[in-house]
Amino acid sequence: MMKVDLHIHTVASGHAHNTILEYLTMAKKLEMSVIGISDHGPFCPDVTINEAYFRALTRLPRRVDRVLILRGIEANIIDAEGNLDISDKVIERLDYVMAGLHEIKNVKNRGVKKNTAAIVNAIRSGRIDIVTHPFFTKEFSLDIEKISNEACAHNVLLELNVSCLARRKMQKDTLLNLKKMIGIAKKWGKKMIIGSDAHNIWELGDDVPLRKIKNKIGLTNDLIINNNPKKLLDFLEIKESTSDPRAEL
Q1: Smallest Cα–Cα separation from 178: which of 214, 129, 138?
Q2: Which H or E run contains 146?
Q3: Range(s) of the domain holding residue 195
Q4: Is 8 a member of any domain?
Q5: pLDDT computed for residue 169 by the predictor
Q6: CA-to-CA distance for 206 and 208, rounded, in angstroms?
Q7: Structure pTM?
Q8: Where does residue 89 rank: exposed (0-12), middle (13-18), buried (19+ CB within 10 A)?
Q9: The domain that contains 195 carries what CATH number?
Q10: Which of 162, 167, 183, 186 is the most exposed place for a label (fewest CB within 10 A)?
Q11: What pLDDT digit, counting tens, does each position of 223-244 carry?
């Protein structure tokens, strides 16, 4: 069970089942230290929100009891240039930006070269902190080695997405891609982040599928930034004392 989970989807994503308050209540029950709200960006066809929702996240309290709340997004990479479906003004207000390729309007599998270029350009843009599920190539074929090297070179975290390890989603190349990604992170001496990709409170903080294959893919505890909340907050340049939950919209 993770004590830090930044990949959480609420009812605002359109296809998830719980509210922020319900996630917070579960996080307290699980004695978690940090959760991050990261609903899908506005180009996702299921979402019920627009940019105003993400701007308003700054009005959430920074901490409730012992649980620190971070404000984020899982943005969509919308073209080969690596542009996102969220403006820079909103990005400036968030604690972190995760981004990946999803099947949305006008974004389809365009082959390894173009798909990889889209993620690489998003990494190089300086707008994102985390690449979501880059090892999962069911919908989008990718050059995992190139993406991993670019992420490490630009100090962007590679995500170990637990949801993609569910039996119904596992692909024959999933373990191979994970091994490559982890090996490159080790070579660069970089940390990685685990994300549950929770779509309900019962998935929050769940890392069981990853722990089951941990030895097979060469994952060691020292690689996981979730294990050290302080290092994660330092990486994201978050200082609790500077946060004002009453920030204007």
Answers
A1: 214
A2: helix 144-153
A3: 4-242
A4: yes
A5: 66
A6: 6
A7: 0.93
A8: exposed
A9: 3.20.20.140
A10: 167
A11: 999 999 999 999 999 976 544 4
